[in-house]
Design brief:
single chain; alpha/beta; globular; 8 helices; three-stranded mixed β-sheet
Length: 263
């Protein structure tokens, strides 16, 4: 018997960039950090290798061109379908390169209609102040079936949306009925908050996630799996010199059933 459909974790996997391990580790981490029943839905073009307990459905067809699949993650808009395979309730969408390090219960309990990550004021502080808010779509919550305008307006003129907004998170930020951001510190950036400054990263490993952080976001490069490789190879981009296997990342991965790469 399926659990009540009032809480749903959503993720999406297409192509070969993220193997099944990423979905399985995320599922395990969610199970460890959510109190009570929930459903876990992966929208994917290939369910091979996914753990039991993970529900799968095809990625909704938005009529995307090949270019739209390759740039901007426009396929994510499929979660805003008026009818998402009969799922109902409160959804928390999580990108596959997120690391869950605290309870996810507060993400479901927050009263705002639509909540997402602020990649601007929280992640990219300016020398003259906190900068400008920049909605991201690495982790957001909404009520399933209640943000259909986001997808309706996109399908009505895909080319204009892609040309004017470039990436899907800018489109979502402009089209959501109302939007608030997670409390500061709930979702932190690996690159902005944990990576050592240039020079120090030659001798010091990345910082551990702070006790009050709930999710660590790996946006762009490096990705979580890059920090798992044994040896002393670089996993960062010059001039950053992050290198070697990162213990807390390797521990998280194996504790949640992931496999470390061979030497």
């Amino acid at each position: 018997m399926k659990p009540p459909a009032d809480r749903v974790i959503l993720c999406m996997k297409w192509g070969t960039l993220y193997p099944a391990d990423y979905v399985n580790v995320l599922y395990s981490a969610c199970r460890r950090n959510i109190t009570g029943p929930f459903r876990f839905l992966c929208l994917t073009d290939d369910p091979t290798g996914l753990s039991p307990g993970i529900e799968t459905r095809p990625i909704p067809d938005l009529g995307l061109t090949q270019g739209m699949w390759k740039s901007g993650a426009w396929a994510k808009l499929g979660v805003f379908q008026h009818d998402l395979y009969g799922f109902t309730g409160r959804a928390l969408f999580i990108d596959l390169d997120m690391v869950i390090c605290g309870s996810l219960d507060p993400f479901f309990g927050h009263p705002a209609r639509f909540l997402t990550t602020d990649m601007g004021t929280d992640w990219r502080p300016r020398p003259t102040g906190r900068g400008t808010a920049e909605p991201g779509t690495c982790l957001f919550a909404f009520n399933i079936g209640q943000e259909g305008q986001i997808i309706d307006r996109f399908v009505a003129d895909r080319e204009r949306a892609v040309t004017e907004y470039i990436i899907e998170q800018a489109w979502v930020g402009a089209q959501a009925g109302s939007m608030e951001f997670w409390p500061r510190g709930w979702v932190i950036s690996f690159k902005r908050h944990l990576r050592q400054p240039i020079g120090l990263d030659l001798i010091l490993p990345p910082r551990n996630p702070p006790a009050d952080a709930k999710v660590v976001a790996f946006h762009g490069r490096p990705r979580p799996a890059d920090l798992l490789r044994p040896g002393n190879a670089l996993w960062d981009r010059l001039p950053h010199m992050g290198h070697g296997q990162v213990k807390w990342m390797a521990d998280y991965w194996t504790e949640n059933g992931g496999t470390l790469p061979d030497a």
